[in-house]
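Progress report, Aim 2. The chain analyzed during this reporting quarter is listed below.
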Amino acid sequence: MTTKVFVSFLVITSLAFGGGYWVAQKKAAPSPVVEQTPALTKGASPKAPNDLPVLRQKKRADGKAVAPAVKDNKLTVDEIEARIREMNVSGWNYGGRKRFMDLQKMLESVDPADMSRLLAFVEKTGSRNMKDSMRAMLLGKWAETDLHGAMAYANALPTKQARENAIMQVVQSWAEKDASAALEWAKQLPKGSLRSQVMSGAIGSLAAKDPAAAFELMKDNETGNHNRWGGGMYQIFNVWADKDPAAAAAKATEALTGQQRSQAYQSIAGVWAAKDPQAALKWAETLGGQDKRNSISSIVSAWAGSDVNSASLWVQNLPEGTTKQQALSTLGSQWSQNDPAAAIAYAQNLPAGTGKNNMLGTVLGQWAQQDATAAMKYV
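Predicted structure tokens for the chain:
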């Protein structure tokens, strides 16, 4: 699993669901066995509320599903369960990133045939956060080698939120290897929260490889709700800007409006600034109104993270007005993370006015959260 998986399982466990699609079997309990449904004809929806579309997985030349190489030195299931139990005793949130890396390494030892047993153990062990996180990680891993088994287990979970979270994790893992097949499957789901979230996750996986294709697919699957794809649109343009910021900016201007375009601009600005702040600023100057101010703030934030002296000099030379005031606040926010005393000294030398006051307030506020005693010396 990758960093993307680490992020995805954290996001999944925090999502709030409203409305949606009941996909579990009646009286279902966590089980890797769920009856397959017939293939859907083009344009058809599942006829029963418990049905999921049939999975279409890539095959090798010999007809078997594609699977990663098996690694040596595997842990036994008993050993893995013992380690999970130890982690639960020490506190699930203890260890942060290192904890995740330890789990990732440990899960490399899990045989697909043992996934249902290990998941059953997790369901009986530990806090809700642990269950949600471990379930997401295990299902993502399981889907790499046994997509049908992982989806069947996810579809049989008894609660709607756990079930939909699990389905999304399985599709996310699938989409990392075959985004087009995962998207075709997701498009067959009935319209609702589950379909929207599964589509968004799969499109995000496609965006990592082909942001232009992901954008067109996202636009093709909009149904009038232009805010629904906000996070996904930001992700697409974040990747696109890393590959070709000028092309990403041109597409955002051509094809987007309102909040979607504003989000895309901010994403492009930050990524572009990390590569070439002067080129990013030249582009931002062509924008108007709040889009210009927000894009300049994103550029200043990214620029200050790598070269605060150049960024601060550029901001200081801006003409007085709302653009400068907003840029100063952004500069203060970024600068205070590394050197709040220097940020305060810079702000104190600014001409009296709203920009100076805003920057001082931003820096002192953040500094107080890090070291209240030190910050109070400047009040």
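The two ends are 47 Å apart (CA to CA). Residues 160-187 form the longest helix (28 residues). These observations will guide the mutagenesis work planned for the next reporting period.
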